[in-house]
From TrEMBL:
Domain of life according to the entry: Archaea
Protein's name according to its UniProt entry: PQQ-binding-like beta-propeller repeat protein
Boundaries of every Pyrrolo-quinoline quinone repeat domain copy: 33-157, 161-243
Biased segments, Polar residues type: 46-56
Species per Swiss-Prot/TrEMBL record: Halocatena marina
Region (Disordered): 29-56
SUPFAM superfamilies: Quinoprotein alcohol dehydrogenase-like
Length: 267
């Protein structure tokens, strides 16, 4: 694992001070105003509403900056305190922090190539001074200040996007249909409970309940509500119609969309 800290403005400011070229430091100062507000979860809040009271741009929209990497384009970046966090692969799999106003790299952590690390296929989540990012079957907690890895957990199947509430990280394991809760500071498991044969997407958390969508053993979809403290299944609503996405039977190797249950059943 390699951490690159590339704060260009700090480097130029230091050079200007040493050489006596005050204007050199000025060259690195962006005219873009700082970015306020936050979007710390892929769906905005623990309830997955994707709702904000911000009005957004009110004038013609132009490109302020562009970060040219092979990004995980299906998943949203997260932002807090003027910094954007996201994972990408470009020959290697990496996680990066960018200045939201200028696009300049603040740090970049190299995790390895795709044969070693899974593709960053789910949105990250910010929890205090760490940012949590799924990479295939791994969940990695990065220090927001410098990109150092605080802790890492590895599972048998892919990790879905995490949801964070009160220092607890909730997510489902895609192929196993298991809901996991971890302490965001240590990575220790606080809860583990099955919700079905297969699960996908970020869970929603409201008060003392966590809600997950899963595929049941008879190939139908269900919404499951669990107690966040005990893992007790409080209720389940099952869709009476078959889950057509996985209705086809597998013969040998097949695409995920044709699997009857879980992708690993197709191997």
């Amino acid at each position: 694992m390699t951490v690159l800290r590339l704060n260009r403005r700090a480097v130029l400011a230091s050079a200007g001070s040493v050489l006596g070229f005050g204007s050199l430091a000025q060259l690195s100062t962006s005219t873009s105003p700082p970015v306020e507000g936050s979007w710390s979860l892929g769906r905005g809040d623990p309830q997955n509403t994707a709702y904000t009271t911000d009005s957004g741009p009110t004038k013609s929209v132009t490109v302020s900056w562009r970060y040219n990497k092979h990004l995980s384009s299906m998943k949203a970046p997260v932002i807090a305190d003027g910094t954007v966090y996201l994972g990408f692969h470009d020959e290697t799999v990496e996680f990066v922090a960018l200045d939201a106003a200028t696009g300049e790299e603040q740090w970049r952590t190299k995790l390895g190539d795709e044969s070693e690390v899974g593709f960053p296929d789910a949105a990250a989540a910010i929890a205090g001074d760490v940012v949590l990012a799924p990479f295939g079957n791994r969940l990695i907690a990065f220090d927001r200040r410098n990109g150092d890895i605080r802790w890492e957990r590895q599972f048998d199947e892919e990790v879905n996007a995490p949801t964070v509430v009160d220092g607890v990280v909730y997510f489902v394991i895609r192929g196993d249909g298991v809901l996991i809760a971890l302490d965001s500071e240590t990575g220790d498991t606080t809860l583990e409970q099955s919700v079905g044969e297969w699960a996908k997407g970020a869970v929603a958390v409201s008060e003392d309940r966590v809600f997950a969508v899963a595929t049941t053993d008879n190939e139908t979809s269900a919404v499951v509500a669990l107690d966040t403290r005990t893992g007790e299944r409080l209720w389940q609503y099952t869709n009476p119609l078959p889950n057509h996405r996985y209705a086809g039977r597998c013969e040998g190797n097949c695409l995920r969309q044709r699997c009857s249950r879980r992708p690993r059943d197709c191997e």
